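Example A, followed by Example B.
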Amino acid sequence: MGMVLSLGSVSDATIQRLLADPPLVWQIIAPDDPDVYARARREGADRNRPGFFARLFGAPATTGPTPAAPPPPLALSDGEGLIADLDKAWHGIHFLFTGSADDGRPPLNFLVAGGTEVGEEDVGYGSARAFTAAETREIATALATVSDDELRGRFAPKAMMAADIYPGIWDRDPDDDDTLGYLIEYVGTLRETLATVTGHGHGLMVFLS
């Protein structure tokens, strides 16, 4: 399957709830699985229990107060939830935006860095990251200053292969596999997604799975 980067629209109020209770992220990522949130809460509680040796040397059997009852489900407003994914093009797009593999100047490094991690809830390849509505507007504004033609000019197959840009397909013969076209197609998806998100006044959630 490989690593796919997904994008979701989340209001600032929803972001605050996610940060306060990270397992709630599953109600956005997997809304059709009603049990995954409860499982995540149980697993989080298990991680917080002291181990055998800690208990042996006097640690209490539980830490902190008894877990509260689960909060009510997220009530997502119009336009919130998962919107799109960038397939496996995300790392190549990041390279076009920043010229780097895992760094780059914000806000256009947002596909691999920045935002606020939604706790320690592993949703595939680490935690989801959330960008507030204001941060998302900054991303959209920055992207609007970069044309597709400029991004095409930054396509550098040899440098991308040397930098190990996932998924390592950039030196293929363009007559057989138009990898640059693949990237530009998903840049279009990203532009549309940001327009939708900012049009609702929402922020952005980014995660790899």
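Example B, a separate protein, is given below in the same form.
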Amino acid sequence: NSLKLVEKGSRGNDIVLSIDIDLQLKIEQILNTEVLNTKKEANTNFYNRSFVIIQNPKTGEILTLAGKQVIKNSLGKYELYDYSIGNITTTVTPGSVVKGASHIVGYNTGVIKFGTVMEDKCIKFLNMPKKCSWTNLGMINDIEALKYSSNIYQFKIAMMVGGFNYRYNSYLDVDLKAFDIYRKTFYQFGLGVKTGIDFPIEEDGYKGESYAGDLLINYAIGQYDTYTPLQLSQYISTIANDGVRMKTRFLKQVLKEDGSILYEVSPVVLNKVDTKIENIKRVQEGFKQVMTINGTGYDYMGSSPNPAGKTGTSESFVDDNNDNIYDHPTMSNNFIGYAPSSNPVMSIVTSSPDVRDILRGSFKSNVNYRISKKSSNAYFSLYDKNGNRK
């Protein structure tokens, strides 16, 4: 055969990504170990994946995007697969991590102020079961509501936003326009809208189309709409960045053949959350308290300097018999955080869906805690508190 030259070839340009390959590999190894080990624990029959995203909250650059999924092969052995794409294309039920955004709704509408005290004890509506926090927390203020992750505090905010005065066993009658108030604020944080990532595909989550009073108060604690781990990453980065939402991105530079810079990507501001900076600072203080000794997120970021963050436990559902009906209840865990709280150089999201089969038993793996702690430590083993590579 003979060949005919149609056009002389030439070397293309090089792209430089924001991914730190050393950190990426460390996080992937953590996930490899933890995901496999968790399948050996009790009550993990539906658990099969975990995700980690580490981002620069000031620039939107992604330093790590990692996900691992475990699947049983034909021989009955578990095999690990890369599932990094799941951070962008799959959604999770967020749970209590959204309570920072819910607090902003309360401040913006004036139904709560700094220091507002409400009683956390179970509430009851007509023809509905009782709704409670994980324990009765008693009289708590807005900071303590975040620190201890009070559901009741958020329920009461949502009811007041909807113009409803709670009475025991009364009919839950709220102005459903409150849904629009909540969603508008959540969108400004990146929850329920696309992050703008420079990638061909991106899910923007499930948006519940039914409006009802009980759905509104569930929405306020992250038990209605679903979001991608990437959206959760943009959300916590926006809080860390004083309410300024940055476009999420992989690309840093494009280089010519000789190594010179063809062009460099600059950070892009998508929007600023419509609230007073004092309100953002108040949520930041609450998130700092979450990470202290009695907070629900204590030690989730290990040796990270002065961290802030929020845990989230949610009820989710799986299809347990392949009938395309997702009706078997499970428990999922999410964590969002950043450090240092005074000058954030990194934000982190860890997500572990379906860690517990609610119908099978009470044991719940703490895999998400282990992944969060080890991943945060991995970052600060490579970077100092100012975000400079060691």
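On Example B: The longest strand covers residues 328-339.
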